[in-house]
Amino acid sequence: MAEAAAGLQDVRHIVAVASGKGGVGKSTTAVNLALALVAEGRSVGLLDADIYGPSIALLLGLPDGTQPKVLNGNTFVPVAAHNLKTMSMAYLASASTPMVWRGPMAGGALIQMLTQTNWGELDVLVVDMPPGTGDIQLTLAQKARVSGAVIVTTPQDIALLDARKGIEMFNKVRIPVLGVVENMSLHVCTQCGHAEPIFDTGGGAKVAAEYGTVLLGSLPLDRRIREGDAGRPIVAADPDGELAGRYREIARGVLRALAGLDASVPEIVIE
After folding, report:
1. What are the b/e assignments for 148-177, b being 16+ CB within 10 Å?
2. Residue 168 belongs to some domain of the structure
3. How many CB atoms within 10 Å of residue 66?
4. What is the pTM of this model?
């Protein structure tokens, strides 16, 4: 913890965005949540903790070959993008270079990016976690004071099963779950406006209720969100639109949960 504290001393909250399985839109959610927090007036960093499959650089529209500056030979300057301070393994290796590493090596890379990046003063550092419940998740829990986690899922049963595993993991390492985001909750036809829940309905709310947390928001299966994968996240591309509004509501829910955690810490008075 001491090692992490040295690099994160001016970061007020660390929020992990996680999922039990891949393909549920976790990274897209992490990016748009970070941008929505900025829109809510917060100073925000974004750390791509997916060592093997980093995607933040692509989602933010940063070209291959983008690298952080280095201070004093041992401290990274975070890469600025859309008013975010960002750090990713994608900045340290080319897009075509696979990280053929065992778990401890990946964990070491995470610690270095986490603690040797000059984050400065941040209200929230959003950490885009890799899918699953493995080494990277445990390393983050051990090396940083994580305020809470946001679980991303889709309504289908297999995704909900893995979402439960993710929540259970954070419970075991005593990291509060701030809430659940249900992605791809329904599809609205652009021609006729008909809404259809392709992956079933109500799954995110059900899982949230099971574990005593909240459904932060539901997001539709919408091509405009997917098009943001080309480097223009929807919150940045259409900040006043309905979809950006949904992400901002999720961000406000996260901020309320963090404020609740702050309020639960007793004040120490020395007389």
Report:
1. bbbbbbbbeeebbebbbebbebbeeeebbb
2. yes
3. 14
4. 0.89
The total of structural domains in the chain comes to: 1
The predicted pLDDT at position 230 comes to 77
HSE (side-chain half, CA atoms, 13 Å) at 122 = 27
Measured distance CA(8)–CA(216) in Å, rounded: 27
N-to-C CA span, the chain: 29
Per-residue model confidence (pLDDT) at position 94: 61
Q: What is the spatial distance between Cα 215 and Cα 179, in angstroms, rounded to a whole number?
A: 6
- Counted residue by residue, the chain has a size of 271
**Does residue 11 belong to any structural domain of this protein?**
yes
Measure the CA–CA gap between 235 and 215, rounded to whole angstroms.
Answer: 20
Task: Write the CATH number for 28.
Answer: 3.40.50.300
Rounded to whole angstroms, the Cα distance separating 174 from 118 reads: 27
Asked if residue 114 belongs to a domain, the reply is yes
- Torsion, Cα of 203, 209, 214, 220 (10° steps): 10
Q: What is the mean pLDDT of each run of 10 residues along the chain (271 residues)?
A: 62 93 87 98 95 88 90 90 94 64 73 92 95 80 92 82 88 94 78 65 84 92 82 93 95 96 60 44
Is 22 exposed, middle or buried, given 0-12, 13-18 or 19+ CB atoms closer than 10 A? middle
